[in-house]
Each structure stands twice: as structure tokens, then as C-alpha cells.
Design goal:
Number of helices: 11
Structural class: alpha/beta
Distance between the termini: 26 Å
Mean pLDDT: 95
CATH architecture of the largest domain: Alpha-Beta Barrel
CATH topology of the largest domain: TIM Barrel
Largest sheet: 8 strands, parallel, barrel
CATH class of the largest domain: Alpha Beta
Shape: globular
Number of strands: 18
Strand order of the largest sheet: 1-2-5-8-9-10-11-12
CATH superfamily of the largest domain: Glycosidases
Helix content: 25-40%
Length: 438
């Protein structure tokens, strides 16, 4: 299970590798983060007529064996500065993740063969040509280069547009030299999840088409919370291979007017995404204090242009000792911290999980359309979580059937049935440790 913090380093602090110093990394550790996804490190195209924005897109890479000079205090020493960043992150006990874009490169890239066309509206790229025998060895060499710099894994862009056999061979060859290297796939079609996790070898996959789309529909369109049950039932054993997120660089900011508008509406969704069934979770930088992308017209923090999101400026100052967060932002941060750090508890990271919705349809105060209840447990303890996807507070009598928990060690008696009163504020979650069922 991973807790990943995604950040475009060019948007954080002074926009340099050096900004990720000991206080910044200590801050991530305080959130329960296990890995940092530094988005936009490989050198991308900039300044050319086809480039979108200024300085341009991190997903139009021009040189896979270099880093962006603008991220270094001394551009001539940029690779050394990146190595120092990796060393600092590892010293803090965290992993480093960067991007791999196996579907396309910038038109100016000469390190892999390409077609003379591009997918969708990605006019600043050219499609990689996998019919050429030199293509796959070139991709392997690229991943080897980043692994040699100390990178622990890569988030792989748009993997469903790449020939599956090529992905399988790429991952297999890299794992032959770097057995623990982490591969995260941006995958949108649930029908492909099993193959990508099994045959192809990805460690984690986006659950954008499951968790993200369902939660957004529940919060914004009044969809039924029952869909969360249907999603995990569909996923089955793959649930633990999912990477859940409320926002990322492709999606609208959660707290923006284009999405939820109110940052506190995240808590029930966050508790479900981070605490249910062992899935990994991605936190996009600034979300923990309610970044709204007010500088944008579409609710997204731009990946094409220089910008200075207010929350990232505030977080950098706050981390370095300045009292710049208001009471609402501090409360939001502490709620994120409490849920994300709790997810690291072995009970949540490795324990058992029961969806309680099936036995609480008629329970007093429980609305299966707006509420979701589940139980996490191990040999020592159990925790009840009630997620309230409603604009109104709830007080529900949650029924836990007899024998649902494992047998007690003394005498082999079954755990008794119980009715637990759980209260949750609007859009929030109640997390209750149970001590009387064991």
C-alpha cells in the first residue's frame, strides 16, 4: 500500500529541486506519505512553435536522459542536483517516482522511433512507433537510466495506447535488473485491469473509472453510495492494486467551483478511498488545504504554463515556519493528516475488511443511498467507519452481525452481534475503534 504525494516541482516554492529540503520532506512524512511523484522532471520541449504553453507540457519529453534545466539552481549541474534530491528523499524514508510516457514524445525527440502523427489533440507530441525493433530496447535503456539515478518507480502515462506485449516485455526486462521497481499504470478501462495487473506486471493502476468517477457522481450529482459496493465487488482481489485519488494534474481541483467547491466535502470520500480494502491513495499537492485553481478558467492547475497556486505558496511558507494558514486551512490539513496517517496502521494496511451496507439497509438512521459503512479488523482490534455522503449530519445505528469478526482466542467463542451508534457530520466520516467485540 502506497500513499503518494504528487507535485510539479516547478510550481512549489521557488520551483527548484532544492526546495524539497528536510522540512518539506518531514511535512510529507507527517501526512503518512510513502512516496513522492515528482511530475515533470524529464526534459520536455520548450520554446518551439508546437509547444503548448510556457514553459510547456511535461508530457512532451524532448530528452529522456536529462532533467529540466529550470528546476536547478545551477542548470549546468542539474543532474547532480536531481541526484541530491533523490538522496534527500531516500534519507527521509520515502520513495521517488517520476514519469514514463511510453506512448509519445516531443517531435524534437530523437531517442525513440516515432510515427509522423499524434493521438487526440496532443499536437505537441508524436506517437512512438513500436513496429521498429530498436524501440523497446530504447525504452528499457530510458527506464534503466532513471533507476540508475535512484528513482524507485514510474507512473506510466496512457498505457492503454501502447501495445500490451511491449509493456509486458519492458516491465519484465526492467524487473530483471531492478526487482522492486514500481510501475503505476494510467489505465481507464476496468476490463483491462486484470490483464494489466496480472499478465503485464503493473503494481498499481488508476481507478479513475471506478473510485474517482463514482465519488464525483455521488458528491456532485446525487448518485447512490451503493455504487461503491458495486465497484469493489467488480474489482474483487484487484481492489488492493488500485490507486485512488480525488484529484490529479489531469482532473479539476476538488475544491474548485468546477467540482465540489467546498473542500470539506472531501472527508467522506477521503476516508473511503484511503481506508477501505487496502487500496493505495494519491494526494495532489495543495489539496490538503483546499487548492481551488482560482488562476485557471477550467478548475485545473495548468501543466503547460508558469503559475503560482496559492496553496502551494502557503504550504511552502507554512512548512518553513511562517504562520500563514488560516483556521479553516489548518483544520482541513489536520483532517487529511489524521485520515492518511491512520491508513498506515497495520489494521488498515493489512487487516481484513467487511462492507456493512448489505446488513444495514433497514438500520435506524442509515441511508444506503447516502451512507457507506465498513469494518476493518485484525487479530487485535476492529474499527468501524461510517462515510456520510450527505449535506446533512447523520446518526446511524450500525448493525454488526454475530460472527462477522474472527473467533476469539480464549475459548473459541464467536464475537457477538452489536449495534453501534455512529455520528458523522455532513460530507464527513465517523471512525470508531471497537473494544467490546473482541
Amino acid at each position: 500500500m502506497e500513499r503518494i504525494y504528487q507535485v510539479l516541482p516547478r510550481l512549489w516554492g521557488r520551483g527548484k529541486f532544492a526546495c524539497w529540503d528536510a522540512p518539506a520532506l518531514d511535512y510529507l512524512r507527517s501526512l503518512g506519505i510513502t512516496a513522492v511523484w515528482f511530475t515533470g522532471v524529464p526534459r520536455h520541449a520548450t520554446g518551439a512553435s508546437y509547444v503548448k504553453g510556457d514553459p510547456g507540457s511535461p508530457y512532451a519529453v524532448e530528452d529522456w536522459f536529462d532533467v529540466n534545466p529550470y528546476l536547478a539552481d545551477e542548470p549546468a549541474k542539474r543532474l547532480d542536483e536531481f541526484r541530491s534530491l533523490v538522496e534527500r528523499v531516500h534519507a527521509a524514508g520515502l520513495k521517488v517516482i517520476t514519469d514514463l510516457i511510453p506512448n509519445h514524445v516531443a517531435p524534437s525527440c530523437r531517442q525513440v522511433p516515432t510515427h509522423d502523427w499524434f493521438d487526440y489533440d496532443w499536437s505537441d507530441t508524436r506517437k512512438i512507433d513500436y513496429s521498429r525493433p530498436e524501440t523497446l530496447p530504447a525504452l528499457v535503456q530510458i527506464v534503466d537510466f532513471w533507476a540508475g539515478l535512484g528513482v524507485d518507480g514510474m507512473r506510466c502515462d496512457m498505457v492503454e495506447l501502447v501495445p500490451p506485449e511491449a509493456l509486458k516485455e519492458l516491465i519484465g526486462r526492467v524487473r530483471g535488473r531492478h526487482p522492486s521497481f514500481l510501475f503505476i499504470g494510467e489505465c481507464y478501462e476496468p476490463a483491462n485491469y486484470g490483464r494489466f495487473c496480472g499478465e503485464l506486471g503493473f503494481d498499481l493502476l488508476y481507478d479513475k473509472s471506478g473510485y474517482y468517477d463514482l465519488v464525483r457522481s455521488i458528491l456532485c450529482n446525487g448518485a447512490s453510495a451503493r455504487s461503491l459496493t458495486w465497484n469493489w465487488q467488480r474489482l474483487g482481489v484487484l481492489q488492493g492494486r488500485m490507486l485512488n485519488f480525488l484529484e490529479n494534474h489531469d482532473e479539476q481541483r476538488f475544491a474548485s467551483s468546477a467540482y465540489a467547491d467546498v473542500p470539506e466535502k472531501a472527508f467522506a470520500a477521503l476516508a473511503f478511498g484511503a481506508l477501505f480494502n487496502g487500496a493505495s491513495f494519491l494526494l495532489y499537492a495543495g489539496g490538503e488545504i483546499g487548492e481551488r485553481a482560482q488562476e485557471a478558467t477550467d478548475g485545473r492547475t495548468s501543466i503547460f504554463n508558469w503559475t503560482h497556486p496559492e496553496s502551494l505558496c502557503k504550504l511552502d511558507a507554512f512548512i518553513h515556519g511562517k504562520d500563514v494558514l488560516n483556521a479553516k486551512e489548518k483544520a482541513l490539513l489536520e483532517r487529511y493528516r489524521s485520515i492518511l496517517t491512520l491508513s498506515a496502521d497495520p489494521l488498515f494496511s493489512k487487516g481484513g475488511c467487511h462492507d456493512l451496507c448489505y446488513c444495514n439497509g433497514p438500520a435506524a438512521g442509515f441511508d444506503p443511498e447516502r451512507h457507506f459503512a465498513f469494518l476493518r479488523f485484525n487479530a487485535d482490534s476492529a474499527v468501524l467507519v461510517l462515510c456520510n455522503f450527505s449535506p446533512e449530519p447523520c446518526c446511524a445505528q450500525i448493525y454488526i452481525p454475530e460472527g462477522l469478526l474472527p473467533q476469539k482466542e480464549n475459548g473459541g467463542q464467536l464475537s457477538p452481534s452489536a449495534v453501534i451508534t455512529a455520528r458523522a457530520e455532513a460530507w464527513d466520516a465517523a471512525i470508531i475503534r471497537l473494544r467490546d467485540l473482541r
